[in-house]
């Protein structure tokens, strides 16, 4: 379990390493109109992480938590992922993981 927690904690750095050296054009390339760019995927990973950590807190704290899903396609389209600041979202992602790791040891 400790190894999994440590890998989770390093998630942001692993993502950064995976995209290191890619040009802005490569990061924003969409292989098809209905496929996401790497930039959009990075924003999505952050949004998913925020929601997942929220759900985990609800499960741990509430007797009958209501866990809501989200329409990821609507978020990409209506929140303008292509215009969002990737670096700002990567910083959010970096903060979420370690803040949540302590709950896994409860």
Brief synopsis:
The chain has 6 helices and no strands. The chain is 65% helix and 0% strand.
Describe this structure in words.
- This protein is mainly alpha-helical and 106 residues long.
- It has a single domain (2-105), classed as Four Helix Bundle (Hemerythrin (Met), subunit A) (Up-down Bundle).
- It is built from 6 helices and no strands.
- Helix 2 packs antiparallel against helix 6 and helix 4 (38-61) runs parallel beside helix 6 (86-101).
- The longest helix is centred in the middle third of the chain and has 24 residues, at 38-61.
- It is flat and about 45 Å long.
- It starts with a helix and ends in a 5-residue tail after the last helix.
- The model has no long low-confidence stretch (mean pLDDT 89).
- It holds the Pfam family DinB_2.
- InterPro entries: DinB-like, DinB/YfiT-like.
